Amino acid sequence: xxxxxxxxxxxxxxxxxxxxxxxxxxxxxxxxxxxxxxxxxxxxxxxxxxxxxxxxxxxxxxxxxxxxxxxxxxxxxxxxxxxxxxxxxxxxxxxxxxxxxxxxxxxxxxxxxxxxxxxxxxxxxxxxxxxxxxxxxxxxxxxxxxxxxxxxxxxxxxxxxxxxxxxxxxxxxxxxxxxxxxxxxxxxxxxxxxxxxxxxxxxxxxxxxxxxxxxxxxxxxxxxxxxxxxxxxxxxxxxxxxxxxxxxxxxxxxxxxxxxxxxxxxxxxxxxxxxxxxxxxxxxxxxxxxxxxxxxxxxxxxxxxxxxxxxxxxxxxxxxxxxxxxxxxxxxxxxxxxxxxxxxxxxxxxxxxxxxxxxxxxxxxxxxxxxxxxxxxxxxxxxxxxxxxxxxxxxxxx
Length: 398
Ligand code: APR
Ligand code: PHB
Prior knowledge:
The structure is a single chain. The chain has 398 residues and is of the alpha/beta class. The chain folds into 2 domains: 234 residues, FAD/NAD(P)-binding domain (3-Layer(bba) Sandwich), CATH 3.50.50.60; 121 residues, D-Amino Acid Oxidase, Chain A, domain 2 (2-Layer Sandwich). Helices cover 36% and strands 29% of the residues. It contains 12 helices and 21 strands. It has an 8-stranded mixed beta sheet, with helices on both faces. Helix 1 packs parallel to helix 6 and helix 11 crosses helix 12. The chain is globular and about 65 Å long. The model has no long low-confidence stretch (mean pLDDT 96). Bound molecules: adenosine-5-diphosphoribose and P-hydroxybenzoic acid (PHB).
């Protein structure tokens, strides 16, 4: 295609990735009168077909409402005032609302993404879906360009700033020179097999986290008629190895008798295996590029923190960019990476700790099992330990 056919777009902030991080940033900026163009590799339908997390901290809910995108969340989200933890077939309840005065809300990431896409479309500002070969240039220059090819042809977005919200496999983090970027990683020796089913949830007001000799299991929900369950599985397993019957048969013995009796089984409408990983990239800024969400960090899902971390990054980044664009103040953008990372590492620690506490590692011996049991006794033996857990689970301040 000749160069003249290439479209040119101008904006203040180019956003790479239309997941929750990218779309929420676009909404917060729009509300403050700051223009953005969003560039997404996949189609809208593909993005909406991905089944992801489902628990929102109060600060995430507040941020979504503040962005003007919270109407359906407030109407349909289901409040969870506590969490349940099962060990050795015995369930204990941790009442976050009583302990720290905060709670979380069950609302699927897919639904949140749909709300954000609808809000974006209502602004008439462009989201370029199915954008291939996306490249970011000019990070250290006086302006930045995002190039790509979408179904209408080649395009270049000229912007003052670029937000890399393109997930773990995106292009933004890879645009930072190797000598600048430091990465930290831990890969866990198991995965989570997740099943979505149109059955009422076993535990409609608390996620159930279960530690057992057969491995970890989790009961969650998307609505009063849609449930999400997980079991820990070996990394070598494939989805085809797991019939629905095998899944339900693996789940039930890992739970306490009361929760197991409340599980309504039914055909799965989605089934997938996700590896567990901890990952952090530092710094989260290089020149005109800022990373946010999965592009910069991954947590294992045990603490339900992935989506909430993305929201927290975006809130900080939106405030920083709004300050810069409105008043020229660079204080926010200059401290973004350091402030975001300080919180991220605390959440990484909690997610790693919860994963270590609740899973069965392939090399777990009797000694390690006793230590896990003792650690749970520590948690449930002390109000202060429970309040500390509740504080982290319900979400650190941004
Ligand atoms: N160009 C444009 N878009 C891209 C590119 C690229 N080269 N690479 C990836 N993307 C898109 C992906 O298709 C995806 O839609 O970036 C988007 C990133 O979205 P997410 O992976 O959902 O990441 P994020 O918005 O940071 O949300 C974090 O997602 O994975 C979960 O646990 C995580 O819940 C957390 C949330
Ligand atoms: C989910 O609902 O998918 C979910 C809930 C809690 C977690 C992880 C996933 O810790």
